Amino acid sequence: AQKITQTQPGMFVQEKEAVTLDCTYDTSDPSYGLFWYKQPSSGEMIFLIYQGSYDQQNATEGRYSLNFQKARKSANLVISASQLGDSAMYFCAMREGWNTGGFKTIFGAGTRLFVKA
Amino acid sequence: NAGVTQTPKFQVLKTGQSMTLQCAQDMNHNSMYWYRQDPGMGLRLIYYSASEGTTDKGEVPNGYNVSRLNKREFSLRLESAAPSQTSVYFCASSLDRRETQYFGPGTRLLVL
Could you tell me if A66 and A90 are in contact, meaning their C-beta atoms sit under 8 angstroms apart? Predict the structure, then answer.
């Protein structure tokens, strides 16, 4: 079974509009961390945002916010006011066993975002 | 600070050749990781090192070996390269096992 599911292989958004990239996860561990990474065409992996399973509030980092719905096991990334430079591949990832020293970080297959001028 | 650096950036090997991918971090992180990324897939963990002196297998360790040379450096060795090992290899590090991982620029490996 897929641990991390990103159902949108590709997404288009108009510049300056907001976009939501979907991510659902599957775990029976009560403690886990959720991450989003950006991979531009140059290939590097850039950390964007993190959400802990016990965090009460949704994480935000500048134009990025994480819409965390624990009961639905979803951790969608919201990018506000899209910019041309946001065009990239976006990966959702989960690390289980947060409090027990788990090292298994599972990545989704990614969503490619295209920002149109 | 350079962050996480990897060498080489690109390498072509023939089947059966060996090589070592180098990774170094200057962030005083305790934990380091090696991933591979194949087309259409996310990253898969090959090996990791929780702290200096320890290494453990990840999801896809077959065909690879690692060495945590010191706190800064974590190398990945392919003893006998196979075409199935054609991939992009990323090294990452984190302050400890719970913290965010930061990635190097990647090494593109082509095995003919």
Answer: no
